[in-house]
Design a protein that fits this description.
The protein is of the alpha/beta class. It contains 14 helices and twelve strands. The strands form three sheets. Strands 5-4-3-6-7 form a five-stranded parallel sheet, sandwiched between helices. Strands 10-9-8-11-12 form a five-stranded mixed sheet. The protein has a two-stranded antiparallel sheet with strand order 1-2.
Length: about 300
């Protein structure tokens, strides 16, 4: 990484300076005040949820962080990302590729990119969101402000809220269920709580959660010994696969365990495997809408 920094610092900065329009606006992000161009034309976005945000706002980025398990994009955004250049995973951004794209605006995240912020801001004005969990609307509105597309953002949020309201009405008495959300990742099981992507959506809809999940926190990180704590009236589970098969292996091991088989939701046939990308990892507005459709389908309401 140090070699990359030296190379980037050796690059002339004139391209970045020329590509930034003279007219600019000041906005406040997770790091302070940033002067952004009035009408950015070449946007690079460095998070999966940010990519969904700009697409939903009608902007195709010139470059974006690779989808975590995409090739290079998640299947549900591949068509929309035609022409965009991948610039590395969120946690391993390629600064040379970003500089070569000559962006006039970069959308990044403090949690992921604070250490490389000096290099990013040397390329183009960089707006940083703060968190990568919980309520996607916070980052969505920040990115919209940076793009000068606040009106489009509010329309998109209103459409999402209307879809939530419609699904809530259709679900009716099903909302009395306590729904449990479980994720298998290599070496770890997570019991998701309210301050997670899926947790926010389920709360928006109005579902109840088991007591250990009805907490304003992110997740309980645990192992097979906590299988009894994963129960609910219904269980949604998903698996992150890092490419070595360990996530899937853990999932298979847990689902075959007698403790899992004895859970009330399992015995009642109310467990559902869902997409890790849609229910967790993509993390943006497009995935949120697809998750609503998943729930409608799983409850026989689509």
């Amino acid at each position: 990484m140090k070699a990359l920094f030296r190379l980037l610092h050796a690059l002339p900065l004139c391209a970045a300076l020329v590509s930034t329009p003279v007219s600019a606006r000041d906005i406040t992000d997770a790091m302070g005040i940033v002067a952004v161009p009035d009408a950015p034309k070449r946007v690079v976005v460095l998070t999966n949820e940010g990519t969904e945000a700009v697409l939903a706002l009608g902007v195709v980025p010139v470059g974006a962080a690779n989808s975590w398990n995409g090739d290079p994009w998640w299947a549900h955004i591949t068509e929309a990302m035609a022409g965009a250049e991948p610039v590395g995973k969120e946690s391993a951004i390629n600064l040379e590729l970003i500089a070569a794209l000559e962006p006039d605006l970069i959308l990044a995240n403090k949690q992921r990119h604070e250490e490389i912020r000096p290099q990013l801001t040397a390329i183009a004005p960089t707006v940083m969101s703060e968190k990568l969990r919980g309520n996607w609307k916070i980052n969505f509105r920040l990115y919209a402000k940076a793009l000068g597309r606040e009106a489009q953002a509010e329309t998109a949020v209103a459409d999402y809220d209307a879809a939530v309201d419609g699904l809530r009405e259709k679900l009716g008495d099903h909302l009395e269920e306590e729904v449990s959300v479980i994720r298998f990742v290599p070496g770890q099981i997570r019991i998701y709580q309210l301050d997670s992507f899926s947790g926010v959506l389920l709360k928006d809809i109005g579902f109840n959660r088991p007591a250990n999940q009805n907490v304003e926190a992110f997740a309980i990180r645990t192992g097979k010994e906590s299988i009894p704590d994963m129960d609910g009236d219904r269980i949604f589970y998903f698996t992150y696969e890092s490419g070595d098969g360990k996530g899937t292996s853990l999932e298979e091991d847990v689902l075959a365990d007698p403790l899992w088989q004895s859970l009330s939701a399992v015995e009642a046939g109310r467990t559902h495997q869902v997409s890790d990308a849609i229910w967790n990892t993509a993390g943006g507005i497009i995935a949120a809408k697809l998750m609503l459709k998943d729930i409608a389908r799983l409850y026989g309401l689509d």
